[in-house]
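Forwarding these from the shared drive since the link keeps breaking.
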Amino acid sequence: MKSPTIESESYVLRPFETSDAKLWQQWDIDPEVQAFMPEPFNEPQDIEEQYKYIEECEADEEGYFWSIETKDGVTIGTTALTEFNDYHGVANLGVVIGDKNYWGKGVATEVITALVNHVFENLNIFSISAEVEEGNIPMMKALEKVGFKQDGLFESARVKNGKRINVHHFSIVKQ
């Protein structure tokens, strides 16, 4: 689905652009950026594969995908609302702040707030979920600041560095 542009005080959530692909190539192989991603560590991808991914996201009927950009045009991360189910009114949230210069500055909290507000006001969504790997305390805190509540723990749900780890499940429900 084509993602609408959403603005917060400091950031713009905009649809993916082909220029984003070069940043993704850097973020996809940065072990610090990938530390809490659900997939195994990524191998470097050809730029054409990144372009193909952008096309796939635009064609996805069960998701919205955005790049996170500062008001002065610096792309610093991505966010997505996936597994969108219009019948049940549910979706899953994912956020990656790829530019480490913006870590610890409240970006995730501001972006998630803007996204949740937009979704609850404009889409047929009543509940948004997010999964956070154990140890990702900053993301857990950001979700809680926005109003998400931890409503589950998936014990040993993923493998990271050869060890089983827990995944925390959070959700927010439209009031």
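-- next protein --
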Amino acid sequence: MTGFDSYPPVSRNPLLPNILVDISASSSPTPPLAQWSLDALFILPYARLRYYRKLYARLLRSTKEGRSDYRLLIVANRRLETLVSEVETRLEVDVGEDDAPNPAVLATSGDRSREQSWQVNERVSRSSSTMNSSVESHSK
């Protein structure tokens, strides 16, 4: 889910700003972020999944079909693709929306309207590209 930074029960927590400042001081985010936010931190595993999906796809392309690890790479690629798809579906849910569907229902229903979710997809795209650069700089 997204929207934790603006979700009232979370944003009213008086300890949260200091915690985010401490995290930002110990591991600074990549620009354009000046300070970590909850949404930025929570999207890091998604960025990592996308990184590994690309890595495993490259490994599969460079592996010959007869090798023993070829089948394992196929299974790993399918699993990573499934995980990325599930997370992308859940990223369309804002924690603050009262009428938001259950994330479990979203994960199983492949029926989403592109017109209704274009703004969310744009936000996810911007967030994920920002977080990809942050993850890549921290993983080097």
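The chain has one domain: 37-138. The CA atoms of residues 75 and 81 lie 10 Å apart.

- D.
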